[in-house]
Design a protein that fits this description.
single chain, about 180 residues, mainly beta, 6-stranded antiparallel sheet, 5-stranded antiparallel sheet, 3 helices
Length: about 180
């Protein structure tokens, strides 16, 4: 007897296969689709950078229904663009401890945004609203993304920094 495949797994698996996505360290699946060949030399960048960077990068990013993008931060601004599937809630914790929650999706009448930019140095996480088996977004970073600019949030450290958000941090970090 053949195993029964879950419609949830089949649909997201098809998109993962079609777009040739790979597992991302923060959760979800991704593939870089653009990296500009123009380079900003280190002396042309703000002091927060420690190496030359390309002008811009972009990726596809997919979250399955029960997965999330764990709290992380990067050195550049990052714009998320909604493509298809379930709307995505983005949770931002600013350095001063204030928070913002934004939903990106295609229901403009419900107050969803087609894109949203997360400012550099903000801790942010995301999850889909579970209306669909997956969420597919694009992420654009400028100056371009480098993994050396990426910091994955540690639950205990973030909870000490932002005790008022301990429950959210626990929900959207990995042990």
């Amino acid at each position: 007897m053949l195993p029964i495949k879950s419609p949830l797994l089949t649909e997201s698996a098809e998109v993962i296969d079609q777009l040739q996505l790979l597992p991302h360290p923060e959760g979800g699946w991704y593939r870089e689709v653009y990296r500009s060949d123009d380079i900003l030399e280190l002396n042309a960048l703000p002091g927060r950078y420690n190496s030359p960077h390309c002008f811009s990068t972009s990726i596809y990013f997919l979250l399955e229904k029960f997965d999330f993008s764990a709290f992380h931060r990067i050195t550049s601004d990052e714009t998320w663009h909604f493509y298809m599937g379930s709307p995505v809630t983005i949770f931002c914790i600013y350095p001063d401890g204030s928070t913002v929650q934004v939903v990106i999706g295609n229901n403009l009448a419900a107050g969803q945004f087609l894109q949203y930019t997360i400012p550099r140095h903000c801790w942010f996480a995301a999850k889909n609203l579970e209306e669909h088996p997956f969420s597919l977004v694009g992420c654009t970073v400028s100056p371009g993304f480098e993994f050396s600019d990426f910091e994955l949030g540690q639950r205990q450290n973030l909870s000490v920094l932002f005790p008022q958000h301990a429950l959210l941090i626990e929900e959207l970090t990995r042990t």
